[in-house]
Amino acid sequence: MVDKYDKVIAVVGPTAAGKTELSLKIADEFDAEIISADSMQIYKNMDIGTAKVSEEIQNKVHHHQIDIITPEKDYSVADYQDDVDPIIENIFQKNKLPLIVGGTGLYIKAVLEGFSLPDMDPDEELREKLRKEAKKNGNEYVHDKLKDIDPKLADKLHPNDVRRVIRGIEIYKLTGHTKTYYKKKQKEAPPRQQAIKIGLTRDRKELYDRINKRVDLMIEEGLIEEAKYIFINYELDDKSTARQAIGYKELFNYFNGEYDLEEAVRLIKRNTRRYAKRQLSFFKRDDSIKWYNISKINKEKLFKNVLNHLRNNL
Predict the structure, then answer these.
(1) How far apart are CA 228 and CA 203, in angstroms?
(2) What is the pLDDT of residues 187-209, one digit of tens each?
(3) Which end of the chain is flanked by fewer CB atoms within 10 Å, N or C?
(4) Alpha-carbon distance 125 to 72, whole Å?
(5) Which of 144, 156, 146, 155 is nearest to 178 (CA)?
(6) How confident is the model at residue 208, as a pLDDT?
(7) Backbone phi, then psi, for 8, in 5-degree steps?
(8) What is the DSSP string of 58-95?
(9) pTM of the model
(10) Band of the pLDDT at 108, cuts 50, 70, 90?
């Protein structure tokens, strides 16, 4: 163990890659405390569908950012940054190792590198006006408005991605600067934390098979009953974050009679696979991540290689 830790470890990658098992091995080896970077594990009573570690494991290794709010509440990237900064500082003061684990890339990026967008309340009136314009005149009409304001962002966004197109317009209207401007400022800023980043992935077929089996296991463990409890006991509107959680939103629609249970399960699997693909695309843009493909290395060798890498760089 080093005399005093001054770096954060981050274990990242797509859902079902194997991050939890590796993180527990690292925590045991380096006396680390784990900070969840999962945008859905923050919610109480959403346990099975978010693959939270058991209470037994949480009692053995201190976990942060799990079960901190109820499902009807919203929680932003800025909120995560504000909450995690003092947690990291406290872990350092105990001469322990902060270990961020999860697949919500924006959370991890905000803490390690900074989140440059200003903290601002949404302009619901503007959003509704733009949504109506898109409905009346077509998505291209609103996309063209973004193109006039922020052409670089417009080039990256498909006209049908109406939510992000509207968000780009909103940022400019509320701050006088474009999202592209803020992203440039963020790149120029020094990192907020020195970090060692470990990325886990698997061959696509194996990853997708694991996702499908994991969903089946969640159903067996009681995901339907858990989702029903959330559905009955919390008032979640269509815009609430928890309402959009994969595994829950599909079952909520099933409860509403939009399709049968078989279709709900099929959609959970499909949407989880698509999410994993987006996670990988996000993390692959970060050249500082050291990747390990678990399909090409056995578990014992993975643990050995990762632990040696950390010892050499802490």
Answers:
(1) 34
(2) 777 888 999 999 999 999 999 99
(3) N
(4) 22
(5) 146
(6) 97
(7) -100, 140
(8) HHHS-EESSS-B-TTS---HHHHHHHHHHHHHHHHHTT
(9) 0.83
(10) very high
